[in-house]
Amino acid sequence: MRVFLHDIATISGINQKRNWFFFMAALVLTMLLHNRAVFALGLRMCSARVRRGPWMDTTRPNSDMSEFREIFSKAKHIAIITGAGVSAESGVPTFRGDNEKWRKWQSQDLATPEAFSRTPSRVWEFYHYRREMALNKKPNAAHLAIAECEARLRKQGRTVVVITQCIDDLHRKAGSKHVLKIHGSLMETRCVSCGHVTVNKRSPICAALKDKGAPGPDVADAQIPVDKLPRCGESDCHGLLRPNVVFFGETLDSHILTKVEKEMETCDLCLVVGTSSIVYPAAMFGPQIASRGVPVAEFNKNTTPKTEYFTHHFQGPCGTTLPLALARHESEVI
Q: Which pLDDT score is estimated for 94?
């Protein structure tokens, strides 16, 4: 958003200090366009906050599980938005807070297209470390509850879609079928030359990365030659592969976002599970659904910047609260 406003001022050749009126007009216009811009741009990192509008319910979200269960029993199309907190209960680091560094590098500084272009060996070591960790983790009770709920409700003509920020593939491993991965997957690679995307669960992903990627602050970079890093298997290509994840500063897949928007428009119940609600555009999804008057329940260890927008908030580990919330309701006929 800040970049967008700067561009407006630059294009117009106007000094902000001398033209405060123009700046404020641009700000208002930007805010009016914000909802559509989030989807059009799909920027993973955005500093804008959702502001409370007149349509928002000003009452505090409640934690009445029996009330939520009644709403759940009547829902036909359920959207479940999940974040790193779900995977954290399986032992996958969130790469924020205490885990935001790998060696001496900030994780968010490694997960950029610029870093991959400058030092592909270092970035591949970082992602190899994350891949190997994810490959060895198991779905927890929250993952399993979501997958079981989806399978059970499908038999009743009801749908469950998982819209996830996680890139570890644990939802798939748990058995979930309808998963929209807005940030990509560690278990996929994309060729930087031909663009071919493929599922890739090899361990190690290439011989040169075997036993590499240790996170200790004193570990030196392996400095693997580019031609020894993962390469494309398509005939006549052999281009450099990269993890098929969304780096910071990159746009999200417009096809995935179109599917997400459709699910948001049709769901009649939404669960926001294990997400800090600070990474955009996903932080907007729950409030946008709530703006239609649809019940939205948040499941998290703590409140978040978006808690006030939701009808329900259930505090505690997702692996404890979610199985109860999604268990078979007495009214269900199987």
A: 83
